[in-house]
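The data layer described in this paper is built around a simple, fixed record for each protein. Because each token names a local backbone shape, the row as a whole describes the fold. We quote a single record here, exactly as it is kept in our systems:

***
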Amino acid sequence: MASKLTGKTVVVTGASSGIGRAAAVEFARRGADLVLAARRGELLEEVAQECRKLGVECRTVVTDVTLRADCEHLIDIAGSVDVLVNNAGFAIFDPIESARPDDLTSMMQTNYFGAVWCTQAVLPQMLARGTGTIVNVASIAGIMGYARMGGYCATKFAMIGFSETLRDEVAGRGVRVAMVCPGTVETDFFVKAERGKMPGASRLILAIKPEHVARAIANAAEDGRYRRILPLGAAMYMRFKELFPRLAHMLMRRVSAVVETKS
């Protein structure tokens, strides 16, 4: 049975590696034509070649999502966009007291404002047509704050607030807004974001494959479901945190202290 994405035009940011690369391949498997964006042109072209082998059209646009003009250029090149996946992002983990201002600024510019600029660029055409889907790749770090991850958490909390607001603003106007909130994922993300700096308790949840997240992203593009949290263990703890926030944070601190003492 044909996918709902067959023949649709999908834009994916941060597509040169990790979740973005896996998402591009998953969309290609489902028959979508792709416009891939990232700063690293050579890697981007490698992903595009892999997608083209699956029989779809795939274009690449070297893009720095921190630059609003780049985001507008990306959407202009893409043309009529059916799905926008705001995935570009990175993390540097440090305690708030010692976090470098440049790191905090650059994370917000990429992780949050990159999604804002791309969304603002594509939204007018989607609203004019009365159709389209925006999938924002957030994180469980946007649902619960973690020690030594404050700068990154702030960007993902911002992403979730932006997504929830946008969803309300476009309700009934034909445009859907969905979020995918993964836990730790086995990608090059941790070249900068060192997992050893994460709270000990968070390391007890095994990292998942980027392909797992990619399937969730493609499913979100198909059904527009409000929020997906993965893996299951993370989803359960995030639900617990939303019901009992103080208790969830207390458990995180205590379990982390035990794990970090033993490590």
Observations:
- Residues 101-129 form the longest helix (29 residues).
- The CA atoms of residues 201 and 256 lie 4 Å apart.
- Strands lie at 9-13, 33-38, 58-62, 83-86, 132-137, 175-182, 227-230.
